[in-house]
Specification:
The protein is α+β, with helices and mostly antiparallel strands. The chain contains nine helices and ten strands. Among the domains are: about 110 residues, Immunoglobulin-like, CATH 2.60.40.10; about 110 residues, no CATH class. The relative contact order is 0.09.
Amino acid sequence: MKKTYLNYSLFFALLLMLFSHTAWSQDVKVDARLDNVSIPLGGQTLLHLSIQFPAKDSVKFPALKDTINAKVQIVESKTDTAFNKDDVSIETITRHIRITSFEPGTYTIPSFTFTTSKGSFATKELTLQVLSVDVDTTKAFYDIKQPLTVSYTLMDWIKDNWMLIAGILLFIAAAVAVFYYLKKRPKRSKEVKEVKAAVPEHELALQKLQALRYKKLWQQEQVKLYHSELSDIVREYLEKRYLIKALEQTSGEILSSLRSAEIQENDRAMLRQIITLADLVKFAKERPLPADNERSMENAVSFVENTKKTQQTTVNKEDNSSNGLT
């Protein structure tokens, strides 16, 4: 009797593990596809790698350099982010990779592996056929025609560039007029004005985050207001730090605008968690756990600290500006 009970328990445990794994994997979907499965020699096509996953999770894309394999090269790539219009908690990231090949043949595009908190997910293998260009050997070859020589005089050049010449003369006349004006005008004593140093954007953001922490909004059941103010502080920092219109953009547009910015992948994941959770609270009326509320604050502080302008960066920019003026 005891052995039978043990067998039933083991059977149900295995069944539960299998069901849990199936439901777990269904949250994440990966895909790989080609716009064209065959291209001419030297032609190009797009390889699309996409993953659909819960927006709260972080995703690590497969690492790609400048080639898919020895015969297939990467020309360029870009990434798009989108949220499910019926469920904003589902996010889809797609990387569009333009590829080419200069050797005819049939090549295998290997499987690509995405890594999430729920495990690793691999795409299917694809096949790309590169077609050779047929050359008609029955036709004769001809010499390259030499360019025709045309006489070009100084008057011809003046007629073609009279607007440029007039602009240069006007500029010289204006420069001479300004020189004489500055030389003859009475000199005034220089007034020394006190210039208040502007507060760096990262210091201002950290001050606002600290003030928001002291308000204890989510502890007083004001969760929506807490995440709204936290998101606004981060968006204001992004506007000043990266010169994007973050306050006017959606979460997906913000992440898209920062594609080329020098931001570490871990910091991108923290930013995605902050603005995604804020969207879920605002639009999906989600009630996050206290740990999630605190994690958003900690991620915001870490993101600002990790992406702030360093003194060396500011000095280099000033040097570049000075070199441009000299």
